[in-house]
């Protein structure tokens, strides 16, 4: 009979230990994993990306349910362990389930520390530690305006940036003089604060929170100096505390964490601990690299492999906070016997500081340029003497820096600090297993599988191993593939792939059905490449596009009838009023694009509302050409020089419902006063005495990009033609979900300008656009109103 191994905790440290055990002896144990959360194992490091909507929850799942099944692991999820009997060797879960064990690993992790102050239990006070925390914050961001984050550490700043990206006004409250004081010195911390303030974050430094204000829900904070601040949500991010509740019900020794020896053993027979809940030599670690090091030692112990004792870890932090690169490792405070070498470049706004004791690096702080972080860290870990290094060198010739060529790096150079994977390990895996992609290397070695910041270096090692030539890491469009957008589109044309299924199969996607990130992208690329041959795959589109309505935060939808150019009439207004009253629509609002929106519509009411409105839908729900915003123009405004409303209506008639890589917004102003903000539109027009100025590549949102003047033309038809050519060029070369501002920067403004202003190229693009959109329906709601089967499939409650 196999021994029963029970893991308490389904987080990164515990599951990594199980992976290491399976690598060493897959048939050794009958394994059960008990988890508190409802999700399978996921990468907690990526929660900030979910909050910033750069990734979805499904994309951060590290080990899906299939992994547990394939490895014959029993997963008891959403049912935490609440009692542990070390004498009889059994665990009891919250639901009453009893689980016997021969060996038990405690990997219960940690919890966000909530200040024990008045008001801490009010609604609206949250931590930032789990998927549920993240989703609660996203939900709050849709309803409220102001947020306060208590804590200026890494997680606090990531939470603040995420909420800022969701449109909230965010203030960070921090007790210390500078941000991230445990990872950065004062200089770097102040540089980080200055950069984040430029992005819109506000800071209250050296502030002690005394109590949280509010009756049932938070309304503000009161500080010890007598000042207050209003807020709708409070995110507590002042650190973590080891989760030791279960261990404290037993005779297991617990201090700050569960006390373990050099082999991760507790004082209770056959009970071990790893991760943020474990205390080794008085230290509790909160970064993944030490936790994974502990897991390797414990895996050796539990599979009877000879192993070196765990001696503690030298921690490092390499991250990008809201676009600001920083790196920290080791001891970063000057003290007796520890001196420093620092260099500040005010031109490029970079800062480097090395802490030295007895001619050896003991600490590193980098800000702005972190390219040498890995090199310094390797020197630190090896206790290498720096006697032969030049401490500071100004204005040396380009190319005289330390070599970035991986072919010259020693075999024991650590490539992936999170997982402790060196160059030799990666090289061996590439050669023995015939690996050809960064994804393959990650799968077989785990290098790059945690924070992912080393993937470019892995790509360099891969290129060196495969041919001696250093290459960059492939930047795949999603986790299913290492292929870039350009590589995929090239193969779609070359192999004449006309369906998503063919793309996934022929291009060897890891997931044969794609994922939520790549499915809509592949569908779009196929629509552009084969407008006649490819049948649009509606199931690959986002819910707004499938239902022709925008989903709201409470699960209801918004209806936006079409009013070209923002122009309406009494009959339309009466129809909207009657429908809103009949279907008890909770809010009717004039939108930012000068349309009237009905908000809070139930899904099952959508077809009936559209039928009774008898109006066309506005292009407000898809990655497509949106409604064109206009001012009243020369016909009414005393400053107007052109008929802006008339031109806006023509543009909308000509190009509405055309799919684009991202939403495509237009604005037509009749004079340079630009009442419709033409200067921040994807395609903006400003009327002047001699014609129309055309601006391109402007984007609003959290990162406002000003449009660039493309040209001035004399006639409306020239405006319409240039707009069509830009649309098709953007469709053909854009990366799915890429706005025109980054597209213009990537392509180069001069290149785009040359294409759009070349009469022959412009005509070719217009012909291609005409072919692509030939036969498109003028109103997608016609199909829904006429087709009862579609209504039944898409608009019945509980179905999407």
UniProtKB/TrEMBL annotation:
Residues 4-282 form the FAD/NAD(P)-binding domain. InterPro entries: BFD-like_2Fe2S-bd_dom, BFD-like_2Fe2S-bd_dom_sf, FAD/NAD-bd_sf, FAD/NAD-binding_dom, FAD/NAD-linked_Rdtase_dimer_sf, NasD-like, NiRdtase/SiRdtase_haem-b_fer, Nit/Sulf_reduc_fer-like_dom_sf. NCBIfam families: nitri_red_nirB. Its cofactor is FAD; siroheme; [4Fe-4S] cluster; [2Fe-2S] cluster. GO terms for molecular function: 2 iron, 2 sulfur cluster binding; 4 iron, 4 sulfur cluster binding; flavin adenine dinucleotide binding; heme binding; metal ion binding; NADP binding; nitrite reductase activity. Pathway: Nitrogen metabolism; nitrate reduction (assimilation). This is Nitrite reductase large subunit. Siroheme binds at residue 675. Residues 552-614 form the Nitrite/Sulfite reductase ferredoxin-like domain. It comes from Enterococcus plantarum.
């Amino acid at each position: 009979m196999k021994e029963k191994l029970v893991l308490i905790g389904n987080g990164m440290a515990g599951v990594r230990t199980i992976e290491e055990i399976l690598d060493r002896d897959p048939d050794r144990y009958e394994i059960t994993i008990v988890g508190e959360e409802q999700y399978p194992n996921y990468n907690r490091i990526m929660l900030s990306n979910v909050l910033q909507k750069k990734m979805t929850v499904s994309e951060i799942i590290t080990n899906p349910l299939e992994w547990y099944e394939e490895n014959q692991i029993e997963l008891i999820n959403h049912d935490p362990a609440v009692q542990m009997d070390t004498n009889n060797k059994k665990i009891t879960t919250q639901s009453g389930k009893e689980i016997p064990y021969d060996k038990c690993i405690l990997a219960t992790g940690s919890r966000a520390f909530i200040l024990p102050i008045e008001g801490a239990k009010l609604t609206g006070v949250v931590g930032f530690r789990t998927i549920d925390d993240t989703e609660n914050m996203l939900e709050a961001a849709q309803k409220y305006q102001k947020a306060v984050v208590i804590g200026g550490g890494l997680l606090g700043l990531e939470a603040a940036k995420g909420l800022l990206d969701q449109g909230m006004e965010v203030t960070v409250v921090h007790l210390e003089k500078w941000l991230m004081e445990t990872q950065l010195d004062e200089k770097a911390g102040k540089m980080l604060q200055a950069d984040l303030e430029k992005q819109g974050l506000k800071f209250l430094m050296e502030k002690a929170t005394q109590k949280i204000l509010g009756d049932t829900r938070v309304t503000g904070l009161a500080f010890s100096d007598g000042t207050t601040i209003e807020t709708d949500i409070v995110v507590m991010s002042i650190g973590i505390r080891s989760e030791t509740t279960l261990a404290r019900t037993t005779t297991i020794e617990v201090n700050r964490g569960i006390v373990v020896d050099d082999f991760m053993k507790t004082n209770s027979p056959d009970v071990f601990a790893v991760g943020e809940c474990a205390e080794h030599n008085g230290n509790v670690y909160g970064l993944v690299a030490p936790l994974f090091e502990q897991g390797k030692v414990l895996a050796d112990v539990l599979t009877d492999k000879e192993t070196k004792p765990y001696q503690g870890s030298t921690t490092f932090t390499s991250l990008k906070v809201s676009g600001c690169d920083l790196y920290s490792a080791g001891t970063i405070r000057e003290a007796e016997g520890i001196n420093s070498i620092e260099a500040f470049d005010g031109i490029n706004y970079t800062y480097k500081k090395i802490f030295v004791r007895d001619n050896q690096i003991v600490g590193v702080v980098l800000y702005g340029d972190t390219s040498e972080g890995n090199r310094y860290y390797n020197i630190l870990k090896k206790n290498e003497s720096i006697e032969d290094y030049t401490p500071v060198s100004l204005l040396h010739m380009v190319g005289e820096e330390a070599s970035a060529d991986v072919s010259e790096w020693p075999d024991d150079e650590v490539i992936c600090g999170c997982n402790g994977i060196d160059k030799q390990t990666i090289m061996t895996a590439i050669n023995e297993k015939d690996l050809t992609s960064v994804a393959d290397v990650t799968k077989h070695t785990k290098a790059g599988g945690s924070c992912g910041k080393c993937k470019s270096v892995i790509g360099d090692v891969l290129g060196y191993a495969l041919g001696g030539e250093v290459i960059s890491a492939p930047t795949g469009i999603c986790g299913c593939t290492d292929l870039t957008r350009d590589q995929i589109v090239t193969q779609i044309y070359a192999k004449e792939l006309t369906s998503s299924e063919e793309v996934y199969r022929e291009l060897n996607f890891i997931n044969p059905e794609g994922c939520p990130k790549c499915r809509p992208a592949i569908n779009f690329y196929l629509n552009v490449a084969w407008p006649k041959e490819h049948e649009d795959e509606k199931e690959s589109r986002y819910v707004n596009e499938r239902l022709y309505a925008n989903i709201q935060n409470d699960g209801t939808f918004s209806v936006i009838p079409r009013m070209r150019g923002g122009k309406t009439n009494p009959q339309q207004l009466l129809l909207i009023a009657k429908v809103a009253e009949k279907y008890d629509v909770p809010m009717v609002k004039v939108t930012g694009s000068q349309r009237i929106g009905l908000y809070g519509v139930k899904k099952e009411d959508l077809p009936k509302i559209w039928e009774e409105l008898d109006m066309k839908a506005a292009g407000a729900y898809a990655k497509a050409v949106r409604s064109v915003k206009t001012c009243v123009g020369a016909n009414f405004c005393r400053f107007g020089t052109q008929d802006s409303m008339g031109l806006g209506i023509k543009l909308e008639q000509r190009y509405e419902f055309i799919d684009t890589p991202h939403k495509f917004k237009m604005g037509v102003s009749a004079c340079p006063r630009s009442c419709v903000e033409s200067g921040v539109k994807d395609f903006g027009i400003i009327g002047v005495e001699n014609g129309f100025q055309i601006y391109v590549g402007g984007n609003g949102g959290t990162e406002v990009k000003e449009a660039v003047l493309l040209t001035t033309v004399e006639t409306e038809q020239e405006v319409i033609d240039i707009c069509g050519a830009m649309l098709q060029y953007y469709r053909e070369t854009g990366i799915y979900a890429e706005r025109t501002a980054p597209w213009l920067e990537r392509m180069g403004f001069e290149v785009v300008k040359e294409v759009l202003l070349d009469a022959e190229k412009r005509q070719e693009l217009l012909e291609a656009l005409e072919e692509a959109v030939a036969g498109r329906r003028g109103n997608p709601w016609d199909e829904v109103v006429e087709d009862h089967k579609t209504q039944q499939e898409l608009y019945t409650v509980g179905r999407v």
